[in-house]
Design a protein that fits this description.
This protein has about 160 residues and is α+β, with helices and mostly antiparallel strands. The chain has one domain: Gcn5-related N-acetyltransferase (GNAT) (Aminopeptidase, 3-Layer(aba) Sandwich), CATH 3.40.630. It has helices spanning about 10-25, 35-40, 95-110, 120-130, 145-150; strands at about 1-5, 50-55, 60-70, 75-85, 115.
Length: about 160
């Protein structure tokens, strides 16, 4: 198995993996295409960076991240949006290798932290705790669609 930065030639495989993760967590899936991954993940205005795990059968998994800012530390940090390993690669160190490579990248950039949201599935939490990850106790909130529009229009008022 090899961990490496994604390249444009990985776009179709990444789209497939991204859609698999959506289905795995109960989202409809199918929103990613190779063209969408190429447009958003590569070039000078890339919205995200990606590491891939590659084995004898192709892509086994990925870790998608982007830079963020930590106001608690007054420093940049790595925000891991997704980490996904195909069922055939699970339990074989693929996820840990992806996280270790991401940590090495954050350190190489001089960033003091790496964060990721975690689904509250016990196996997921056990995996991150086993790698010495610490829960910060915060939930991740999201606004989208009509709720985002309402918030942008000044509604609802906070109480």
């Amino acid at each position: 198995m090899t961990i490496r930065p994604a390249i444009p030639e990985d776009a179709a495989g990444l789209a497939e993996l991204l859609n698999e993760l959506d289905l795995h967590v109960g989202n409809p899936g199918g929103v990613f295409t190779a063209e969408k991954v190429l447009a958003d993940g590569f070039g000078p205005e890339a919205a995200f960076h990606c590491l891939v795990a590659e084995g004898g059968t192709g892509l086994l998994g990925y870790l998608l991240w982007y830079p963020a800012y930590d106001t608690d530390l007054a420093a940049r940090k790595m925000w891991v949006s997704d980490i996904y390993v195909r069922p055939a690669g699970r339990g074989k160190g693929v996820g840990a290798a992806l996280l270790r490579a991401a940590a090495a990248e954050a350190l190489a950039r001089g960033w003091p932290s790496l964060e990721l949201p975690a689904f509250a599935e016990e196996s997921t939490l056990r995996f991150y705790r086993g790698l010495k990850g610490h829960a910060k106790g915060a939930e991740v909130f999201r606004w989208e669609g009509a709720d985002l529009a309402a918030l942008g229009a000044g509604e609802p008022k906070a109480s």
